[in-house]
Structure prediction request, 89 residues.
Amino acid sequence: LGEYQAIKKITPDLIVTTNISGHIKNLDQFRWAEHVDIVAWDNYPLPTDAPSTVAFKHDLMRGLKRGQSYMLAEQTPSSQNWQPYNLLK
Prediction:
């Protein structure tokens, strides 16, 4: 919140956002969304994720600002450096 207010004080027309990494159980993302102008998130689906899981995460991000547009900040279709194995897609 402090960073948001500092940026807006100097550059009120600047859009402020930060990356959210999907669904984090211990983080109230709805409260976090109150302190950004647009929700942005990182989509790194696991090879085992059902398409409905990925769709749910997109819906969640859109819902954080009550249907306002959101931004997909990062995504990879196949390989992540933190996966033990990466599948070809």
